[in-house]
Amino acid sequence: MGSLKDALAVIVGLAALGFGIYKFYLFVTTPGSEAAAKDMWWAIGCAVIFFVCGLIYFLGHVNKEEEIHITQ
Question: Structure pTM?
Fold first, then answer.
């Protein structure tokens, strides 16, 4: 990892993924209750956070290769 931004994006993204999977599991195992609806919204929010962290990580690595000049 090159920077603190990358490390933070990976840590937050993986934490959101784990929490989102847990909340989705709670949604699936308790159907038809008010708490299940809140669990689904938590899971959707965590999925959005995971997606944004993935974008931050991968778009930060675009065009980062070293240029090799002809004269070298």
Answer: 0.79
Provide the domain count of the chain: 1
Would you write out the chain's pLDDT as a tens digit for each of its 72 residues?
A: 468 888 999 999 999 999 999 999 999 998 788 888 999 999 999 999 999 999 999 888 776 666 676 775
Determine, yes or no, domain membership for 67. no
Buried b (16+ CB within 10 A) or exposed e, 1-38: eeeeeeeebeeebeebbebbeebbebbeeeeeeeeeee
**Residue 44 belongs to domain spanning:** 4-59
DSSP class per residue in 10-61: HHHHHHHHHHHHHHHHHHHHSTTSHHHHHHHHHHHHHHHHHHHHHHHHHHTT
